[in-house]
Amino acid sequence: MVSHDRILIKNAYLMTQDERLGDLVGDVLVTGGTIQAVGRELQDDDARVIDGSGGAVLPGFIDTHRHNWQGALRNLGPAWTYEEYRRRVQIGLGQYFEPEDVYIGNLAADMMSIDSGVTTVRDESHISNSPEHTDAAIAAHWESGVRAVFDHGWPSTEAEEWQFGSVRTHPDDIRRVRGEVLADDGARVTLNAMLRGPELSTLEVADHDIRLARDLGLRISMHVGLGERGARQQAIRRLAEAGLLGCDMTFIHCCTSSDEELGMLAGHGATASVASALEVFMPGLGQPATNRLLAAGVRPSLSVDTETIVSGDMFGVMRAALAYQQLIVAGAGGAMDRADGLSTFDAADLIAFATVEGARACGIDDRAGSLTPGKEADLIMIRLDDVNLLPATDAAASIVAGGHAGNVDLVVVAGRVLKEGGVLRGGATVLQEAASSRDRLFRAAGFPLPSSGAGLRYRG
């Protein structure tokens, strides 16, 4: 009898992201949720065989920074500035979220992620309005099947009291979550700490919060280099001078962090997350720091940020990073990108940023991010023989330049198939509920409901 927990993908183009294995045409054997073998002419009579001919198999994309709770608010303001986003979403709507809205938003974001080949999301959750809100967010990740790094943040009630000079320390409920909810660092859903740092709070608060996270054994994420304030605050430099900068930290954006600060980040072994699509769409943040990070010795990860502004897939993020680099090459980059001889990257680098570098930033590179035997089976297959990608002369270039969610044929997380034959498994119920959640939130905030499309529902 064929056992469906054993999967053998045959004759695919394997983009392993493992330096020892490289790229090859071959097979991947998955058993018990783990990559058992990668090679040519593998055989397993008990495995279900998936024909990989015409497809590229690679590690699932890893999104190192997404505010999942906004999943039911997607595409609201692609032309918004940073201040408009904060006023309308974080301040305007965040305070009205009930735990059920968080659950729906997170699950909707997870289903979008899975459909587009994202197998790990680092959920930057600044919707911890109550313990029940936090638990609902985590429950959605368990339900969806995605691998999630839940970054416990602050509330969106009294939102202005929690940012830009805030003297409030991180919510103490993180201790309960660590002790009672997400204690297992080897599970599919794990815990990190989303801290505000000296740019959004004070150095004294940052010191307290960082020590709290480290006492709990948690990795740390932190937004820095946000517009003019980021340039003035120089959060990375201040953390370094205070002896707080460390290799357990991921810095998000870094748009207006100085080159000197990026060098400090590299020197301490910290990682970075570039939300390139959001950064080129949203005035007020600054430009993507991808090239400057590379020049400083940091290979960054990539992230979506918020679906209220940009699409929730990594294809658009990769393309935006490349498009902005080409502006730099053409001499049309921002003021911080005009140094001679700035480091550049190509499509293969972008695939690495979206996979193995994402795993390193999340601290899960021991079990995800590459097609390495012994790691958990988080992998995707992209159809290179689809009409929009033919003739796929260069697999990485084709995926970056032309790929989209419709080309993602197979998605596997921890050995569990979540999408196959281009069809996403599950999700219909929550996607039907997303519009209802949005409507309730708009009414509570006194916002006018959308003039068209308000009655649309999922037809899957």
TrEMBL record:
It holds the Pfam family Amidohydro_1. It comes from the Bacteria. One of its GO terms (molecular function) is hydrolase activity, acting on carbon-nitrogen (but not peptide) bonds. Keywords: Hydrolase. Coiled coil: none annotated. Residues 57-417 form the Amidohydrolase-related domain. InterPro entries: Amidohydro-rel, Metal-dep_hydrolase_composite, Metal_Hydrolase, MTA/SAH_deaminase. Gene3D superfamilies: Metal-dependent hydrolases, Urease, subunit C, domain 1. This is Cytosine/adenosine deaminase.
